[in-house]
Write a structure and sequence with these properties.
This protein has 137 residues and is mainly alpha-helical. The chain has one domain. The chain is built from six helices and no strands. It has helices at residues 3-39, 46-55, 57-78, 83-98, 106-124, 127-131. Helix 2 (46-55) packs antiparallel against helix 3, helix 3 (57-78) runs parallel beside helix 5 (106-124) and helix 4 (83-98) runs antiparallel to helix 5. The longest helix has 37 residues, at 3-39. It is elongated. 12% of the residues are buried.
């Protein structure tokens, strides 16, 4: 074996390690980006959910739970009879989440709170909300 081929193998392994390190950094950046989206209460795209399912099953489960809770909340808002009803349901939901603070998991609770608030903001901007009566009657 000559020295030149040993050097080539060494260079190859260094290059492979650099690619692996770059990929790990990219994965961490992607996960951080997705976590930030969840922290802001925004919905994840399908490709982001697929990424989580593959690379962070725990966060994926959390994102699925957030998504289902948000869908249920949005459904309840659609059945509101007045603007006051919609606002009452928001307050009720946020108080329900706040009541769970004693159990810990503040990051998840923050995600849930922001998701509910974001869903409510979207609903308030909708024509459905505009068509609701202002009183509680």
């Amino acid at each position: 074996m000559n020295i030149k081929s040993v050097q080539s193998v060494s260079d190859y392994f260094k290059a492979m390690q650099q690619r692996k390190d770059a990929h790990a950094t990219q994965d961490q950046t992607q996960l951080t980006s997705i976590r930030n989206i969840l922290m802001r209460g925004k919905k994840l795209r399908t490709d982001e959910m697929n990424y989580l399912q593959r690379y962070d099953p725990s966060l994926y489960d959390q994102a699925m739970s957030l998504s289902m809770e948000r869908q249920a909340y949005e459904g309840a808002l659609q059945h509101s009879r007045s603007k006051a009803d919609a606002n009452y349901y928001k307050t009720f939901k946020l108080m329900q989440i706040a009541g769970q603070l004693k159990q810990g998991g503040s990051e998840e609770l923050l995600m849930r709170t922001n998701s509910i608030q974001e869903a409510h903001r979207e609903f308030v901007r909708s024509s459905k909300y505009a068509s609701l009566r202002s009183d509680r009657a």
